[in-house]
Amino acid sequence: MTRHSIRLSVAFFGMALIAAPFAALADEAPDALSVEWQGSKPCEKLYEDSQIRIARCTFPPGAMHVKHSHPAYLSYELSGGKAKVDDEKGVREVDVKTGVLNESSPIVHEVTNVGDTTLQYLVVEKKYQPL
């Protein structure tokens, strides 16, 4: 084996290690913009390029964002309320505070609006490998 082919093999193996968790995540659940609830999609794509995707997600009282996945992302709560979250940590109710910015690792989850207000988020998904 030549030095060049060894370097290529090492580089390929390294890239595979980085990409593997994201491939497994994608196999578990569809992405956030693909899923529907009662015939409509709760998230609307506002912008996308090679680095990020921005979406606005709106959930009236009782609405559900069925099981879906996100790469690492930021979310900004445009309008808060109460939500039930089901993820790897279990099922729990959370208070969603208007005007709060959150950061998340890649995740598979399901979210249901269990309050009496409409929840609305801006989501910025990171398509690149965060540092």
What does this structure look like?
This protein has a single domain (3-126), classed as Jelly Rolls (Sandwich). It is α+β, with helices and mostly antiparallel strands. The protein is built from one helix and nine strands, in the order αβββββββββ. The chain has one helix spanning 3-28, and strands at 43-48, 52-59, 64-70, 73-79, 81-87, 90-96, 101-104, 107-113, 119-126. The two termini are 33 Å apart. It has a five-stranded antiparallel beta sheet, with no helix packed on it. Strand 5 (81-87) and strand 6 (90-96) form a beta hairpin. It is globular.
Strand/helix succession: HEEEEEEEEE
Oligomerization status of the protein chains:
single chain
Portion of residues in beta strands equals over 45%
Question: Could you give me the name of the CATH homologous superfamily?
Answer: Jelly Rolls
Alpha-beta classification: alpha+beta
The number of domains is: 1
The number of helices is 1
What's the average pLDDT?
83
Fraction of residues in helices?
10-25%
